[in-house]
Fold this sequence. Notes:
- This protein has 440 residues and is of the alpha/beta class.
- It has two domains: 152 residues, Aspartate Aminotransferase, domain 1 (Alpha-Beta Complex), CATH 3.90.1150; 227 residues, Aspartate Aminotransferase, domain 2 (3-Layer(aba) Sandwich).
- 37% of the residues lie in helices and 14% in strands.
- It has a seven-stranded mixed sheet with strand order 4-10-9-8-7-5-6, sandwiched between helices.
- The chain is globular.
Amino acid sequence: MEDNAQPPHRPGGGASHPDRSSGVDPNAGPAEAADSGFSVRRSSELLRRIRRSEALIDARPGLYFTGYERIGGYPVFIDRAKGAKLKDVDGNIYTDYLLGFGSVVLGHADVRVNAAVVAALERGVNPSLLDRSHLELAERMVELVPAADCVTFLKTGSDAVDAAVRLARAVTGRQRVLHYGYHGWHDWCSASPGVPPAGKTLLHSLRYNAPEDAEALFAAHPGEIACVVMMPYEIEAPAPGYLQAMRAIAHRHGALFILDEVRSGFRIGLGGAQTHFDVTPDLTAFGKAMANGHAISALAGRREIMARILDLGLTVTYFRSPDAMAAAMATLETLEQDDVPARLALLGARLMAGLDEAAHQTGTPARAVGLPATPFLRFEHAREADRDKAIRLFCNAMLSQGHLMTPAHHWFVCAAMREADIDQTVQAARQAFQMLQRML
Length: 440
């Protein structure tokens, strides 16, 4: 069985006071017997119900994507999220390393962000005119991001990257796109059966840290490539000079260089990965961490390029929503005042070092990889099937011990985590490694 690890932390036993480091009261909510083991009975019941009415739910029902089903089930429905912790409807409490797939950077239900949102809501939702927070947020982002002469706001990361690509095509008069990474679900980057085949022929994937690959594609399609759009990193960091080389190649061939900073923006630095790695894009897409979980994204860029945005017909009904603007302003202010990127780097480095030590102590062929703010674990068994099984077994064991991780995506840390949370995760990982030794 894949779920024969220790049960997660449960309310109703142990501490007699709230867990101040997480913001969740372990004694709150329905209690279950400590020896009942890991149970997601209520989540499973609700999942069965929602599958009858919600068409998309099977695509991403919870922390495991399709193809990563967990024996014994997995949590789907939440009772409360606060700080670094989640409590599901079955009363299980988890340290959350998914964090809204990176959208929560301060911690769930941050009091400063919540207060700003409530104040904005009292002024009206989606007013016909602009709220002053719109102006303040635009000015703040231009201050923080050196490559941003001006910005415009949308709702999702996919929206922002899609707008960047459309703008690049309008500016250059070209159609082809070179890309690296995941950019969302829109037609230009999707292999979905619903996308016209002609559109798919205009997108070319790049090998990461291989500038010669881009050179070959530009040579194969002279004068046809509108832009290079790429995540600055996904797990591994870029090789020294790689991002700068990609920018130079794009410009030499008359194309724009676009960074998809939907995940990295404001997480590894206030100016994003572009300041961390010292590269200046023509356009940048931001999202996720900029508003601590609230729905807003931004397209930023050079003034002469952004001036053409009026040609795109880019109208968004909810782009002026003051609640999201206020959430972003409060988040950016907190990120700067508390030096959150530096804290994330320390927490992530502690987690990665602890995972490496635990793997070494248990003789497990695994190592922590990625940047500290977005860590992951890579197993190094000889066979790919064993590596894939190992990461799924590991995440299953961690889930059963109250640590929410996914085998399909790198993880995140947030400012609400404490060193004690990290150390508890490392201890759980040591037990998970010991279990893997018996099963692989």
